[in-house]
Amino acid sequence: MAIFKLPLKSQQNKKEKKSDTKIMTEEEAANADLARAFPMMVCGDVQFMRLALNEARGLYEPQRAQQIKSRLTSIAFRLKNQGTVFGYPLVSDVAAHLYQFISTHDTYDTNGLNIINNDILLLQNILWKRITGDGGKKGQEILAQLT
Fold first, then answer.
1. In a domain, 116, yes or no
2. Number of folded domains that form the chain
3. What is the DSSP string of 9-48?
4. What is the extent of the structural domain holding 56?
5. Residue 84 — φ and ψ, nearest 5°?
6. C-alpha span between 93 and 81 (Å, rounded)
């Protein structure tokens, strides 16, 4: 007859807690890495929006609206959803404003193009300066620029 020593329940719980802590630490580190990489991942998208907007300025309606809607809407929508996830809620706020503006207009005059350009420049500013969280005073200044 063999006698097996079973681990005590408290010893199992300690081991599980240590492994849970290790997993959480690795998860937190991975999230921090993604948050650091986020501006670099989406700066190309913001530059693409600037280029598409500049190309649209040279077009007449309805081609101008088609250009803006087809090339900017999906990027603005994606940035709206991703910003907060990666610790950049200002990106989400500005991208939401841009997405809403594009979605609710069928034509874009000079004033409309300037509003879109302003939002794109704000996104660029947030990403280049890596303004995370609510941005404090700078974040409030950025949100005040949304028209």
1. yes
2. 1
3. HHHHHHHHHHHHHHHHHHHHHHHHHHHHHHHHHHHHHHHH
4. 39-144
5. -65, -40
6. 10
- Distance CA(113)–CA(23), nearest Å, equals 47
Mean pLDDT calculated for residue range 64-79: 96
1-22 residue pLDDT tens: 555 555 555 555 555 555 566 6
What pLDDT is attached to residue 29?
79
Residue positions counted in the chain: 147
Residue 135 placed within a domain: yes
Question: Is 137 domain-assigned?
Answer: yes
- The answer to whether residues 74 and 45 touch, using CB atoms and an 8 Å cutoff, is no
pTM for the structure as a whole: 0.79
Confidence of residue 107 (pLDDT cuts 50, 70, 90): very high
